[in-house]
Amino acid sequence: MNILVLGSGAREHSMVYALARSPSVHQIIACPGNVGMSSTGICKRVPFRDNSELVRLCKDTVALAVVGSSKFVEDGTVDALVLAGIPVIGPAEDAGRIETSKAFAAKFMARHHIPSPRTHIVVNAAEIEAAFGSDPKIRVVKCDGFSHGAGVVVAETLEEAKAAAVKFLKRHGAPLILQERLEGVECSYTILTDGQQWVSFSSCRDYKRADDGEVGPTTGGMGAVSPSPDLTPELDRKIIESIVEPVVCGMKDDNLLYRGFLSIQLMLTPLGPRVLEFNARLGDPETQSILTRFRGDLAGLLKDCAMGCLTSVGSEVAFGRHAAVSVVVAREGYPDNEAEEPVVRGFERVRDSLVFFSNCRRSDDSEDYRFKSGRLISVTAVGETLDEARDKCYKDIARLELGNVKYRRDIGLIDQ
Ligand code: GLY
Fold first, then answer.
1. Is the CB of 68 within 6 Å of ligand 1?
2. How far is the first Cα of the chain from the last one, in angstroms, to the nearest whole number?
3. Where would you tag: which of 51, 142, 158, 261 has the fewest CB atoms within 10 A of its CB?
4. Res 315: pLDDT
5. Does residue 206 have its Cβ closer than 6 Å to ligand 1?
């Protein structure tokens, strides 16, 4: 079959890599894709212009579309493909609000008794004042929609949180989501669901802060290890009972058809797992770690899911006991003031890892890659143990020729 992959980042590059290993795949069309994907012989790139052109391109040629970035959920691309009869891995716009609207997600969790931080949804200055008056533990302020990382503040003090709420109301408008700050370890838990059944797509620990020791500004993600070293079998059971099952049933009860990956961002607190947020897609760089561990027929499984016939239920599918580590190499200064053009060369020297490229191109007169984004590449290695995977990954990074870049040295260190 021919498969469409929507997106242009390292996440989508790792999807192309994993799908290309499925026996049933003839060709992969990456839209818009990136030049790094060309190394996968069966991948062709096409530009993304608009939904109607995409539907014309796919109709009668593509057996399955797989959404990487949630931009394609929010802007109606999934709906347009489904309407044209193309099976899609990715939720329609209404079910995708579980990611694209934080207020929707908070109300969904309250309605279906899904454990989450104490939350207030406010729409004006008087309600902000009243919420802080009744709940002095509020420290987290979120705007409702996408704001490219600028829409969340985790404050140290009540005054800082209040000031952020007032600023956000002016800048992003209503509603705002105000929450208590939870203490614990973060864990990301991914499932694949066809709206009725679901399978676990394993877990990750991701590293969101820019600098070693999980300090510095929040980024799109500087690394990920899979499975999460913090997830015990008992916690796994609790997450399934108290979160996964209620989410899948809740979608059905609310008449929302959710087909695709759902990544659940959790805080593992002393009182049990609590949902911080949902992503209606696989995470980046979590995907790079998860999919390199996957050992089955990914294309077949995704096709079954998109057709509403997922048969393996509940338990984790086709993941060995291996661990994977992904380290993101970003521009120097990322995510704030990014420095001059980075140098990333020497890929032929990489021995034991896979290199997945972010949005990049190559000019006619040079072998060098030119990157459009702050995050440049994800170097991913798999090992029998986390230590082995980590060792392979960092040794391969040391073999690259790198200039004007930064990366964390502590991805996968257990005591972080
Ligand atoms: N790594 C976080 C995300 O993909 O949103």
1. no
2. 43
3. 158
4. 62
5. yes
What is the model's pLDDT at position 100?
95
CATH fold for the domain made of 2-90: Rossmann fold (3.40.50)
Query: Quick one: pLDDT at residue 148?
Result: 62
Give the start-to-end residue ranges of the domains of the chain. Answer: 2-90, 124-174, 185-306, 323-406
pLDDT at 366: 81
Give the tens place of pLDDT for each residue, 151-178: 899 999 999 999 999 999 999 999 999 9
Q: Please tell me the residue having the least CA distance from ligand 1 atom 2.
A: 283
Superfamily of domain covering 323-406: Phosphoribosylglycinamide synthetase, C-terminal domain (3.90.600.10)
Ligand 1 atom at shortest distance from the alpha carbon of 285: 1
User: How many residues in total does the chain contain?
Assistant: 416
CATH number belonging to domain 185-306: 3.30.470.20
pLDDT for the residue numbered 337? 82
Q: Which of the residues in the chain have pLDDT under 50?
A: 416
Longest dimension (CA), the chain: 63
- Beta-carbon contacts of 203 under 8 Å, excluding residues fewer than 6 positions away, are 187, 188, 189, 190, 226, 227, 228, 231, 236
Specify the ligand 1 atom closest to the Cα of 208: 1
Instruction: For residues 163 and 168, give the distance between their C-alpha atoms in angstroms, rounded to a whole number.
Output: 9
Strands (E), 176-322: 176-180, 185-193, 198-211, 215-226, 260-269, 272-279, 314-316
pLDDT of residue 146: 76
Assign 241 to helix, strand or coil: helix
pLDDT at position 208, please?
Answer: 93
Output the pTM of the full model: 0.95
